[in-house]
Each structure stands twice: as structure tokens, then as C-alpha cells.
């Protein structure tokens, strides 16, 4: 390991610039966040990964409730007949549906086989617009029943041919919000409100800058009138769709008969929305903030802000060191960050301090503090800040650490955001003006062993859905039509025709 | 409704004594807790039911963490080959497994059909010993890796032929703890520790007295060495198994090769446990505490402790009433109960106060407060306590209400427990001494329209598994071999042979 050998090496092999996808896998392994399960395409989320997810979930759950939504829970199974009701919805999801066809197992010739075939096969929910639409059709009768604003935390299944842990797994976890409204305007406002809530989560809590905007027709959610998304840039300059909010118009209310009596006695179809954020956020966070030493956690979602590593030597000295560690922990926990007490963990395991130190580096804890027999005498400690590439050690009096801990964590949070912001801005290109130039931009110099290349191209687009097909050969898609539009005239980067729409083109996960 | 008609009627029809199973369904409907989904055997948990489940979940999650467990998440799917590894486990669950056989849908002749058959079918987890056992076999290598104490919150599927909402649903939600230990003794302690945590949840939080003990061999979890359970008595005098904790010995560690190096270099199999509590707790709570006016919530898990109903009359008066309601709410919220602020809701909807009042009665909120124009003048309010069968109204000064709110809620919590305790004690019979007597005891007088009958029979049992078969004709099982044993000699109630074991016999949900 770097510190011990003295050589300029890194905890994660390969480095980001050597093989980004493999680096990503190794960070997850080194941080002990999750693992690929032998169950095809599925993952096991291990305690460290889960405790980060819990923080994301708890924050988002709080905001979902604060904005007037209620949690509920709907069945895992969808009858085939539900899926069939919305034509583009079924078309969008049919290819990736896990289907339950039997409800019993029996041994036949010593082999366990499915028996008791179902009359109507059941699909495991890839998303719940249909089963929730069916419920809403019963719950909504009058304008007094609206708006209906429901959220559920659930697992969903979309059969993945090329799974990638956190980013694309056959089973994943998410929240899905589903709302019904009396007017188009109110439903639009809802979809935008939740987009803004996701922006706050991603930028203000997870320190990941996002571009918010609408999807092009080719990238829309199956059944939506408009899909809005939040796109991050990874350190290999690709886009990750980190959350979506859909305005569904009356598509699902017509498919499921979600109708209401207006105050003047007419029957009208409701306007619905849906919006979701998933465990993929963990993958985005790794790809945005991780470095060649492993995970790097924004303090607001770090399970621990500070890990104290007592340097244990001889039994007679250890007691004093452990006592000092406990005292420092208590003093730090009496301080608060982001509205709750600073989270401190003492790693008192009887293994070498260096080994413990590297473990917490790889797990991404913002501050690591070493405390040895000599430090107690001077009432100081050795502090390492996780986002320093050199992991430089600073000696600091306990009093100073305690007094400035909140500021140190706030600065850390802000630095992560600023660094990711600067990186993204550096790799948004606005000077690419022809299709050929764009093609060159997105083509690696070395096809055998592609280096990190590309970025986001911000260019004009004519809005013609057919042009999206032409992007496929360079494995690029329109990621976003940003909400902030310049309003200027220009020429479509694909067709050369006059165009006004500003669009973001990129490769994506 | 009762209050309005003046007649001695009840909010729930039928009453408990008329048709208990139907009363149960009607309470759930009246409280708007959940509904049967058109998806066979599955339920929709509606916001009121969900918010109660959240409180149970949050309490239990806190205790699970406080006792040194970590949360994680494992796949929804089990390969058939996993299930086959533990013989009695597969035998126990094979009959109720939902099986995924295809991973794609296609339209054929205008009909959606499953295509892309899986090489190995996948089972939707009925419980996760197998998939977690497989992971543990990789995670555990040395004695240093033990104990391994993991919990997950998840949905599971057991195909139910006779579903009953909350109590037996094809899909249900639960937590399942899974631990591995170096010694038999430590694993036993763990299983007992979690049994005690469940007891605290059920008795101290949900106010439901439980009998804790071991299951007889015929009722054991498939693959367990010992299953311990917590059994409540419903108001129709049946048993509900409200939680279980299993000592699994080395059965699963041998099936999945969960082995570790001991400090002296030997390889040994770990000892494992598992324990779970489910959404069935909501059903148990209804059947233990509900009455003929609906749900009755123990304050510790009530989403609201107090609902204030402003009596709205004329616009010019309403403002003052609503202001007084807000003030009272703020004063009550400044008080605490069970370690957190009193939870108060103002129902300011523009509908009749009587209608609002009955809604909250049926939803089981502990205290209902009416506040009208005359009450403000006297700075008093009208208080109704949910567990009073007459729902009598008491006029009370605001100051008194605020001063005594914590005591009122604590008393309410205690009353519910004492009432359920007294009911149960009244219906535990220790004087039934022969098989024929027991048969008569468990036989309704009127088979056509069975009245509430029976109860728990506490009697001696010889311990012979074959005798359990003989109980089937009276639809009775051994519910528990209580941990507290008298140690006396007697005769087995089934065989008449000498016996020492005290056992609880009952019908059950």
C-alpha cells in the first residue's frame, strides 16, 4: 500500500485513467459496499453500501413527506392484462420483464421442477404505474379526492443483459412517486417540484452537479408525455441519469380510468405524474467523487464523518490512548453538522494502525484521525482529509479539531461539489459545430484500449426524432434538453438545418 | 352512525361477537389501512396502515442496530439449486414458491406471452436463509469474521391458498435477521436475545401480551433445530404467531459450507440463527385491540396521538377557532411522550365535525379533541378517549390537557396492555384434563354459525411428535412450549401417558 511502501502507488488498481470501468468495480470491492451476487444480474448490498443508501433514503423520504406526499405499498406482481393497457408502456418494458408462471415446486426424478401453472402469468413490477393506476381508479371519484400524492419504497426488476453493479442491476431499489391531479398545470408543477427535490438531493446533499432538463422523444419514459431528468458527469466524462420525473398527461388515467367528478358535475380524466430515484445514485456517487484511493463520501451522507484510529502499542499505554480516543469522540459528538451530531467511530481493533487507516481511506470517510501515545502527551492528533490526493497528515491540537470540525466538514462538502463542477464545466464543449467533428470527438484514439475521451457536447438540435437514430453509431444519445435554454438561433448539429433547441449529447451509463 | 342516531349502534358492522373474521375486514376498511389487491393474495397497504408499519419498523430497526446488527440487502431471487441444498428447508417451502421461468414478453397473435425461458428457474424468496447462507460462506473464513450479524428489510412471497389481509398474504414485508457464530452457546444466546427484543416490541410498544416459548417439532421452521415464537391471543381467543426466532444449529452452515478457521487452526462449521417479524403484526394489533368502533392504536405506534377537530360554523367565527386549534397544537407538541414530541393533527376539512370525529374513531387515534366557538371562550375543549367503549366526552381546560397529556397517553398505553392481559388470562384454561374435554372445548356449539369459543388450553404434553397429528381434526395445534415451565409431573392430554412438558394448545390464524 502507498503509505507503507513509500512508492507513489494507489490503493485502487487499476487507476481511473488506466481502466475506468474496472477501477469502478475495484472501488466497490475495496470499500466493501456491495458485490455481484451469483444470482444473475443481481447484487448484494453490504452493510457499508447499505448505510450510505439509508442516509440518501432518509433524506429523500423526509423531503417527500415535507412536500405533502404519503407513503404506501403496492404489490410486487402485475397481471399481464394491466401491462397491456397502455400501449407504449408495455412496448417499452416487455423486453425486460421477469415473468412468474408457476406457484409450486415438486421433486420429479430427484430434480426440483416448477408445477401448478398460473392461469394468467404475473410480471414482477419493472415500475408500478399500472398497478397503482388500477388502485387510483378506485380511490379517485371526486375532485375532492385530488390531488392524490403517493410514494412507495420498493424493489423493482428489469432484466438486464449487461448488468453493472448499482448502475444496471436486474433487481434494484428505489422510491417511486405517483400522483394524480385535477389540472394539467398542477400535474406539471408537481413533476417540476420533484425534479427540484432531486436536484437538492444530488447537488446539496450528494455534492454532484446535475444538468436538469427534458428528455428527447427517443429517450422518454414509455407512456410519458414528458420525461425530465438529472444528468451527472462521471470522471470518464460520460453521463449518468441520476433521477427522472415524468409528466404523464392523461395517458395512464385513460388506460386505467382514473376519472373524477368536477365541482360542476362533469366527469374528467385526471392528470398524473411519476418520479423515481434508485440505488444507481450510489454508482453515480462513486463515479463522480471516487479517486485512485477508493471511495470519497460527501459528509452529508457519510455513515461516519470521523474515524479515530488509536495507535495501539504496549498494553500499559493502550488504556490511556483508548481513553483519550473516547474523550475526543465525545467532544466531537457534542458538535453538530448538517443539523445532527457529528458521527464518530473509534476503530479499536487489534491490528496495525496502517492497515486500519487504509481501510477507512478506501471506504471514503471524510476525516481520519490517528491518536498515539505521544499525541496524548501533547493533546494533539494527526488528521488526514480524505479528498487530499496526497493524504497529507496534519498535526492538530484536540481543541482546534473540536472547535473547527463543523467548518472542516462543510468545507469538505463544498470542495467536493466545486471540484465536480469544475471538472464538468471543463468537459462541456460548446464549440463543436458539425456532425463529423462530433463523431471525431466521441471516437477514442485507440479502439483497442480506449482512453478516457469525449465529454458533453452542447449543441443545437432540430428536434426531429428521426435524427436520434443517427447518433447510435457513435454510441451517443441526447441526454438532456436543459431547462435553461439560450433562445438563440443556430444549426442542428446532426442535420445542419436551422435549429433553436440547445441539447446535451453524450455517451452514458 | 352511533353518535348521530342516538341508538346504541357501532361504527363497525358486523360486531366482533357477530362475525369476527368479517369484523376484522371491516375494521381495516373503515380505518383505511389497506385493501385486498386484484392481484391474487396480495394487498395494498394504504397510507394509514403504512404509517403505523413505519413506526413499528423504525422502533425495531433501532433496536436491531442497538444490539449490534447491521442492515444489508440480498437478491429477491433464489436459484432452484440453492433451495435444494437443505433438505427439510426445500420440503417446507416447495409448496408455496412463486417461480420465475421467463424474462421477456412478446405479442403473439395480439396476446402478450412470456418468452425467453430461463435455463434455471428462479424462485422468489419465501425467506433468505439460502441466498444469505451462500454469501456467508464467502464472507466467513476465520474466527475473526464471527459473529456476523446481518439484518434485511424486504418483501417475501409465499403462495397462499387462503389469503387473509395482513395475516396471510402472498407477498408480505418483514425484517429477517441472519447471524453466524463460532459457538453453539453464542448462537443460542443470539436467538434468545432477539426473542426478547420482539417481546419488548410486542408488549412494551404494541401493548400486546405474548407467550414466549419453543415450537413443537411439527410447527418448527423448516431447517431449524429450534423455533421460538411469540404468541398473542386475539379477541376471538385464537393464537397469532407474531414473530419467530430460530436456532439453526449447523444445518445451514453445513448445507452452504459456512466454515471458519479456529484460533488453533481447525476448520469448523458456524452456528447460525434467523429471526423475523412481519406486516402480520398489523393484523395481530387489530385483532388484539380493535373494538366495535374500529381500530384502537397503542399511543407508542399511533401516527397521531391527538386529533383536534375544529367545529367550523360561520366564517367570522372560524378564524378564531382555527387559531385556538393551532395554539393548542403547538402547546401539545411542546410536550413529549415516549421520548419524542406529542404528535398532533388538526383536521380542518370543511365537512361536518361529527363525520370527521367518526373517521378518527375508526382510525383508532388515542385522543380526539373537539374545539368549537364556545370552547374558546372558556379556554376548554371536549376530549374523547378512544378506548372508552361509550366514547364519553369530557370537557377539559386547555391547561389541564397540556399539563396531563403525557400521563393520559401513558395511561392509555398501559390500559390497552392490561385489558389484553386480563382477557388472555381469562381465556387460558388449565383445568382441562382429557382429550375428550379438550375436543368439547374447541368445538363450537353451533357449527352453522360458530360463535366465539375456545381459548388457550395449558396442559401437559408427552413430547411425541406423532401425537400432533391427532390434534388436526379439531383444528388445534401446539402453539407454544412456554419458556416458563412448571416442572411438575402430570399426564399428557393427548395420550394420557406420564408427561412433564407444559404446552399451550389453541386454534390459530
Name some characteristics of this structure.
homodimer; 509 residues; alpha+beta; BirA Bifunctional Protein, domain 2; Rossmann fold; Translation Initiation Factor IF3; 3 domains; eleven-stranded mixed beta sheet; five-stranded mixed beta sheet; 14 helices
Brief rundown of the structure:
Chain A has 509 residues and is α+β, with helices and mostly antiparallel strands. Chain A has three domains: 20-99 and 128-289, Bira Bifunctional Protein, Domain 2 (BirA Bifunctional Protein, domain 2, 2-Layer Sandwich), CATH 3.30.930.10; 304-410, Anticodon-binding domain (Rossmann fold, 3-Layer(aba) Sandwich); 429-506, C-terminal domain of ProRS (Translation Initiation Factor IF3), CATH 3.30.110.30. Strand 5 (99-108) of chain A pairs antiparallel with strand 5 (99-108) of chain B, so a sheet runs across the interface.
Strand content of chain A: 25-35%
Number of helices of chain A: 14
If classified by CATH, what would the architecture of the largest domain in chain A be? 2-Layer Sandwich
Structural class, from helix and strand content of chain A? alpha+beta
Oligomeric status:
homodimer
**Residues in helix, % of chain A:** 25-40%
Q: Largest interface here, residues on each chain?
A: A-B, 58 and 58 residues
CATH class of the largest domain in chain A: Alpha Beta
Amino acid at each position: 500500500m502507498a503509505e507503507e511502501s513509500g512508492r507513489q502507488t494507489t490503493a485502487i488498481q487499476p487507476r481511473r485513467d488506466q481502466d475506468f470501468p474496472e477501477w469502478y468495480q475495484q472501488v466497490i470491492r475495496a470499500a466493501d459496499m456491495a458485490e455481484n451476487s451469483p444470482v444473475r444480474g443481481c447484487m448484494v448490498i453490504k452493510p457499508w453500501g447499505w448505510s450510505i443508501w439509508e442516509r440518501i433514503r432518509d433524506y429523500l423520504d423526509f423531503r417527500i413527506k415535507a412536500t405533502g406526499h404519503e407513503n404506501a405499498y403496492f404489490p410486487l406482481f402485475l397481471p399481464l392484462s394491466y401491462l397491456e393497457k397502455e400501449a407504449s408502456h408495455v412496448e417499452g418494458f416487455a423486453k425486460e420483464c421477469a415473468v412468474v408462471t408457476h406457484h409450486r415446486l415438486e421433486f420429479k426424478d430427484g430434480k426440483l421442477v416448477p408445477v401448478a401453472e398460473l392461469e394468467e402469468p404475473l410480471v414482477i413490477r419493472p415500475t408500478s404505474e399500472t398497478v397503482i393506476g388500477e388502485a387510483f381508479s378506485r380511490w379517485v371519484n371526486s375532485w375532492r379526492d385530488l390531488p392524490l400524492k403517493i410514494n412507495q419504497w420498493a424493489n423493482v426488476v428489469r432484466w438486464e443483459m449487461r448488468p453493472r453493479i448499482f448502475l444496471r442491476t436486474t433487481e434494484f431499489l428505489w422510491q417511486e412517486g405517483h400522483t394524480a391531479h385535477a389540472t394539467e398545470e398542477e400535474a406539471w408543477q408537481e413533476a417540476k417540484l420533484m425534479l427540484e427535490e432531486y436536484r437538492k438531493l444530488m447537488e446539496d446533499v450528494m455534492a454532484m452537479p446535475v444538468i436538469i432538463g427534458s428528455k428527447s422523444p427517443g429517450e422518454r419514459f414509455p407512456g410519458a408525455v414528458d420525461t425530465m431528468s438529472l444528468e451527472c458527469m462521471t470522471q470518464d466524462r460520460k453521463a449518468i441519469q441520476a433521477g427522472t420525473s415524468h409528466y404523464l398527461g392523461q395517458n395512464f388515467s385513460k388506460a386505467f380510468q382514473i376519472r373524477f367528478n368536477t365541482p360542476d358535475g362533469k366527469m374528467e380524466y385526471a392528470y398524473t405524474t411519476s418520479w423515481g430515484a434508485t440505488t444507481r445514485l450510489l454508482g453515480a456517487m462513486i463515479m463522480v467523487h471516487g479517486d485512485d484511493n477508493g471511495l470519497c463520501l460527501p459528509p452529508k451522507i457519510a455513515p461516519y464523518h470521523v474515524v479515530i484510529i488509536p495507535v495501539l502499542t504496549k498494553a500499559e499505554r493502550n488504556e490511556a490512548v483508548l481513553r483519550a480516543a473516547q474523550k475526543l469522540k465525545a467532544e466531537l459528538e457534542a458538535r453538530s453538522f448538517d443539523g445532527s451530531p457529528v458521527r464518530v467511530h473509534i476503530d479499536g481493533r487489534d491490528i496495525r494502525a496502517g492497515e486500519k487507516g487504509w481501510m477507512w481511506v478506501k471506504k471514503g470517510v471524510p476525516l481520519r484521525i490517528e491518536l498515539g501515545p505521544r499525541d496524548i502527551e501533547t493533546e494533539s492528533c494527526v488528521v488526514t482529509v480524505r479528498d487530499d490526493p496526497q493524504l497529507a497528515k496534519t498535526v492538530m491540537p484536540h481543541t482546534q479539531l473540536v472547535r473547527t470540525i463543523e467548518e472542516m466538514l462543510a468545507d469538505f462538502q463544498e470542495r467536493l461539489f466545486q471540484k465536480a463542477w469544475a471538472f464538468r464545466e471543463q468537459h462541456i464543449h460548446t464549440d463543436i459545430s458539425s456532425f463529423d467533428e462530433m463523431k471525431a470527438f466521441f471516437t477514442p484514439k485507440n479502439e483497442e484500449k480506449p482512453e478516457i475521451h469525449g465529454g458533453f457536447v452542447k449543441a443545437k438540435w432540430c428536434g426531429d426524432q428521426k435524427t436520434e437514430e443517427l447518433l447510435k453509431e457513435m454510441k451517443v444519445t441526447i441526454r438532456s434538453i436543459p431547462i435553461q435554454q439560450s433562445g438563440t438561433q443556430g444549426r442542428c448539429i446532426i442535420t445542419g438545418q436551422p435549429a433553436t433547441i440547445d441539447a446535451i449529447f453524450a455517451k452514458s451509463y
